[in-house]
Amino acid sequence: MKILVVGEKLENSLFEIVRIAKSANCDTMFFKKDIKTAIASDDLIVIDSDLVATLPKEIDNTVISVVNSPNYRTSLKHERSISLSSIRSLEQMIKNSENASEPIAVDPASRRIFQIADKVASSDATILITGETGVGKEVLAKYIHRKSNRSQRKYVAINCAAIPDTLLESELFGHEKGSFTGAIQRRIGKFEEADRGTVLLDEVSEMSLHLQAKLLRVIQEKEISRIGGSSVKVDTRIIATSNRDLSRAVQDGILREDLFYRLNVVPIEIPRLNDRPLDIEPLAISFCRKYSPEGKTLSGRFMRSLKNYQWKGNIRELENIIQRAVLFSSGETVDYLPLNENRSAQKIAVGS
Question: Residue 315 contacts by C-beta under 8 Å, 6 or more apart in sequence?
Answer without folding.
Answer: 134, 135, 136, 273, 283
